[in-house]
Design a protein that fits this description.
368 residues; alpha/beta; Rossmann fold; 6-stranded mixed β-sheet; 4-stranded parallel β-sheet; 43% helix; globular
Length: 368
């Protein structure tokens, strides 16, 4: 994102009148516009959204599922994506030209996605190719910017999700000898380890120092992990696991693969957001669970499954602060702006970025 885009985002400030509205009035306004626009409006909501927003969702899911549903919905003229910026970008890339995608609050970014920008990635690629030659294929987690997806697409790579990362790593190893995995080192490490790649065969690229962090011989490296992480899942620790084991000996621990390697290794189960949801849904009545993922989802599962004992693995809960920027006032403001014919908070992806990012997404979708 350049400085002009940053200034433009910051100018899209929620008008004071929405901050002062009562909840009932905000809800009535959202309902009225949904009724008025009907099938011309589609509101996808990520699992990590607040209940005040989720109540108006036409669909809930992870980022890829929602982008796919947006792509399939050719009737909707307006897609108000309740998630974070990279998710709305993906929907914009996959939808038709006559459809508009909006983000209710343009400040809703992703700290993980921001840990890999184009300047860092291009510098890294130049140095890595000098070191390893043409033996590397880039993969990027969908939790990345359109520009990074585009870079990966141009270099023969693909996107991955937490649910299909293993399948995509297998695909990538059939293409090249080594993988550069952007931007989440933990998902890359956990997935590669699960496939039998040794920890001593994984290096870490540090985009701040522009250095490869690895103690052994370079030719031994199979996976190069970008030094990025999710600020939510980074908060779940081995000590959290130890505390649960001590205080609740029969409780099962299930975590997201964005957690650190030691947390995943010490837990009973690990998997994508949908994997966690299904595991809890299908669990025995009366079973006990500590969940290592975002706060809003954990709270919702506690509410949805009163027949089970559920808590957050981290007792302080772990919210996604940028995801939480999407709230009822911003949703109402976004919908009323659409009703008034404004393009406020409309997502725009550069044509060249969209072209190659779509290629990276399509390579993945062909293997889903």
């Amino acid at each position: 994102m350049n400085i002009f885009q940053t200034v433009e985002r910051q100018s899209n400030v929620l008008p004071e009148k929405y901050r002062n509205m009562a909840v009932d009035e905000l809800e009535d306004r959202v309902k009225a516009i949904k009724n008025k626009l009907g099938s011309k409006l589609f509101i996808p909501c990520h699992h990590y959204q607040k209940d005040e927003v989720v109540q108006f969702a036409d669909a809930t899911g992870d980022s890829l599922k929602l982008a796919q549903l947006s792509e399939e919905n050719r009737e909707a003229e307006h897609i108000v994506f309740c998630g974070v910026h990279f998710m709305a970008e993906t929907a914009e890339i996959l939808t038709a030209k006559n459809q508009n995608v909006y983000l209710p609050d343009m400040r809703a970014g992703c700290s993980m996605a921001d840990m890999a920008d184009m300047f860092q990635t291009e510098r890294a690629w130049t140095k890595l190719v000098e070191l390893f030659g043409e033996t590397i294929l880039p993969l990027t987690y969908v939790n990345s910017t359109a520009a990074i997806k585009s870079f990966v697409g141009q270099h023969g790579g693909a996107t991955v999700t937490s649910s299909n990362a293993a399948k995509m790593l297998k695909w990538a190893f059939n293409q090249k000898q080594r993988i550069l995995f952007l931007p989440d080192q933990h998902l890359g490490r956990n997935t590669a380890f699960h496939l039998g790649v040794g920890l001593d065969e994984m290096a870490v690229w540090n985009p701040i120092t522009d250095e490869l962090e690895f103690d052994g011989a370079a030719e031994k490296v199979k996976v190069i992990l970008w030094k990025g992480h999710c600020s939510v899942h980074e908060n779940f620790t081995a000590q959290n696991v130890a505390d649960i084991r001590m205080n609740y000996p029969t409780m099962k621990i299930i975590v997201h693969p964005e957690c650190k390697r030691e947390v995943v290794e010490l837990s009973d189960m690990a998997g994508s957001t949908n994997y966690i949801i299904e595991a809890i849904r299908n669990a025995e009545i009366g079973s006990s669970w500590a969940i290592g993922t975002e706060m809003n989802l954990v709270k919702r599962m506690i509410k949805q499954h009163p027949d089970k004992h559920i808590m957050s693995l981290n007792p302080h809960m772990c919210p996604c602060l940028t995801m939480n920027r999407i709230d009822l006032p911003h949703l109402a403001w976004c919908l009323e702006s659409i009703e008034q014919g404004s393009n406020m908070n409309k997502i725009n992806v550069a044509e060249n970025d969209a072209k190659y990012a779509k290629l990276a997404l399509e390579r993945m979708l062909a293997h889903v």
